[in-house]
Design a protein that fits this description.
glutathione-dependent formaldehyde- activating enzyme (gfa), 6% helix, eight-stranded mixed β-sheet, mainly beta
Length: 124
């Protein structure tokens, strides 16, 4: 079974996911833009049972971050863990988005990800 690891910038928080993600996405919504400080977030979703983390995290609206360095890390609920893929040790990853959310807020200079499903807002 494939194991993927990552950490926050200061390495206080370590994450591990096992197996393949259920889905991989990009989100252009206002929350994700504000949280990331960028034009979108790149994330993968795994079953919560395949995810673990070590180290203290702080949270805001269900999203966990490192209280020391501020790196955005993950959210976990409803049996799923959503991992911010920029924290992975492997870069570039072999993970490719299969969908894009909130494309009505996508910057005009960004092109759609080829082959990815496109949603004006959330997935149906």
């Amino acid at each position: 079974m494939r194991t993927i690891t990552g950490s926050c910038r200061c390495a206080q928080v370590q994450i591990t996911v096992r197996g393949e993600p259920k889905r991989i996405g990009i989100c252009h919504c206002t929350d994700c833009r504000q949280e990331s400080g960028s034009a979108f977030t790149f994330f993968g979703v795994w079953p919560a049972a395949k995810f673990e983390h070590l180290g203290e995290t702080a949270g805001f609206r269900g999203r966990q971050f490192c209280p020391t360095c501020g790196s955005r890390l993950f959210s976990a609920d409803d049996g799923e863990a959503e991992i911010k893929l920029g924290i992975l040790a492997e870069a570039p990853t072999k993970l490719t988005p299969t969908y894009e959310l909130w494309i009505k807020r996508r910057e005009r200079w960004l092109r759609p990800v080829e082959g990815a499903e496109q949603y004006q807002e959330d997935r149906k």
